[in-house]
Specification:
487 residues; alpha+beta; conserved putative lor/sdh protein from methanococcus maripaludis s2 fold
Length: 487
């Protein structure tokens, strides 16, 4: 029994000592520079404006801790980081972590060049229509399919025409009166008008009989692009038999974007490459610029004529086209990725050094080879941000720098009584008087604020004057002033 009592006493003593040890550990002071939650304290003499997550910089917090968005600690924004007017300052360590890079603006020339696409098409100046000159019947076709190749002088069709047969007999009769050359000449010319070949006319003049069939020959070499006639069919005077396309020279029809078409004129050099002929570059020149503008694609059509002696360029083939226009005038050039286009303006972020940046509105020109012309708003040698702009742009937006670039912001004055306020959450509700300038009647409503810092020191029931500015589709309180109490 005594041994059991001794064991119990020993256990109680052990638990007591252990609890005391745990209590002592918990009561140990936090390491120097920590606040007990693992968050670094602010260095002495540097007041903190707020805390934020570098990946979500537009969300501000009034105390340190873990970010609700990322697995990382919130970062302090110090009051001395504000920088000169018109600039923002970002902690250099944050810039390094986010991979923010800059590049110098350089004065140089851009070579006018357009890389576009096109297709091979038939040269419309080399299309010939073969037609019957007299009424008759097609007794024989030598070409029976579309896209069949033909050679110049090759027989195409044989047509029986009573009118043409009669004209041949008239010519033979005229030849029996050599003392009347005018009659012979008129009969001969009639045969040529009716489509008889000169060789056939000479055959009759040499004493040959009249031909029952008239043979039509190919006037050019090429392919049959359209076949109308069929063997055994009747034809009338002027009826087309077939259409021939000469492919010894073709057109490349290229599409040029609207914003790059001002310097393209006939005679400019062009290079054409086809997937069917890898490694081969064909040299040509701009032959014609079509006046019709493609409104859906915002392009102009440009024509390039190319010789095609081996017939390797087939109509309908895809082509890659490069058009050259010489060098532009000297101008400031920046990497194209540095330009932020908002639809209403273009701007770049200029690095001022020591983590400070200044947004600058610029006027852009032509683009080529990954670089963009800056016609106004930037000087050679200035450093521009080419990656990680989202952090700096967000900070500039929060400070209203981008809005001020477009001129003074219009505001409207109102007055009211605060019905709810929470500076930490940026919450503001007021019962305001009518604001006639924007057609607002008196009402109680919540307001968006430009910065949670505007709400510091305000209380429910307080009478205030405030300024509204239009931001996007709504209105935001950009200034608020407490009214002095009457004595």
């Amino acid at each position: 029994m005594n041994s059991i009592v001794k064991i119990l006493v020993s256990l109680l003593l052990g638990l007591g000592l252990g609890g005391t040890g745990v209590w002592l550990v918990l009561k140990q002071p936090a390491p120097h520079g920590q606040d007990g939650h693992g968050q670094a304290e602010a260095p002495a003499g540097r007041p903190i404006l707020y805390w934020y997550d570098p990946m979500v910089p537009d969300q501000h917090f009034d105390k340190p801790g873990k970010s609700p968005f990322m697995d990382m600690d919130l970062v302090p924004k110090y009051a001395d980081e504000a920088g000169p007017a018109g600039t923002v300052r970002i902690d250099p360590r944050t810039l390094q972590n986010l991979g923010v890079r800059t590049a110098p603006a350089e004065e140089d020339r851009l070579w006018r060049r357009v890389d576009t696409v096109g297709t091979v098409q038939v040269d419309e100046n080399r299309i010939r229509v073969v037609q019957a000159r007299a009424s008759g019947y097609i007794e024989r076709l030598h070409v029976r399919a579309v896209n069949a190749p033909v050679r110049r002088g090759q027989p195409l069709a044989e047509v029986y025409s009573p009118d043409l047969f009669a004209a041949q007999e008239e010519y033979r009769l005229a030849l029996q009166h050599p003392d009347d050359p005018a009659l012979i000449g008129a009969a001969r010319q009639k045969l040529l008008f009716l489509g008889l070949a000169p060789a056939q006319v000479e055959h009759i003049a040499a004493g040959g009989p009249a031909q029952r069939r008239v043979v039509y020959y190919a006037p050019v070499s090429g392919v049959v692009s359209e076949l109308v006639a069929r063997e055994g069919a009747s034809v009338s005077d002027g009826s087309p038999l077939m259409t021939l396309s000469d492919l010894s020279r073709v057109w490349i029809m290229a599409q040029v974007p609207e914003d790059q078409a001002d310097w393209i004129v006939p005679g400019k050099d062009a290079e054409v490459r086809l997937p069917s002929r890898p490694g081969v570059t064909l040299d040509g020149k701009v032959d014609y610029i079509y006046p019709e503008f493609n409104r859906s694609a915002r392009t102009l059509q440009v024509r390039i004529a190319l010789a095609n002696p081996d017939l390797a360029l087939k109509p309908g083939m895809y082509a890659e086209v490069t058009l050259y226009g010489g060098a532009s005038a000297p101008a400031v050039l920046v990497p194209s990725e540095a330009v932020i286009a908002t639809g209403k303006r273009s701007l770049v972020l200029v690095a001022e050094g020591q983590g400070r940046f200044r947004p600058a509105v610029v006027k852009t020109g032509m683009q080529n080879d990954g670089r963009t012309q800056i016609l106004a708003g930037l000087q050679p040698g200035e450093q521009v941000v080419v990656s990680g702009q989202f952090l700096i742009e967000s900070e500039a937006n929060l400070k209203g720098l981008l809005a001020r670039l477009e001129g003074p912001e219009q505001t409207w004055r109102g007055s009211g009584r605060i019905t709810a306020v929470n500076a930490a959450e940026g919450l503001l509700e007021m019962a305001h008087a009518p604001i006639p300038a924007i057609d607002w009647p008196a009402m109680t409503m919540p307001f968006d604020v430009a910065s949670a810092g505007l709400l510091e020191g305000l209380k429910v029931g307080q009478e205030v004057d405030f300024d509204l500015a239009r931001r996007g589709d709504g209105y935001v309180v950009v200034a608020i002033h407490a009214r002095e109490s009457a004595p």
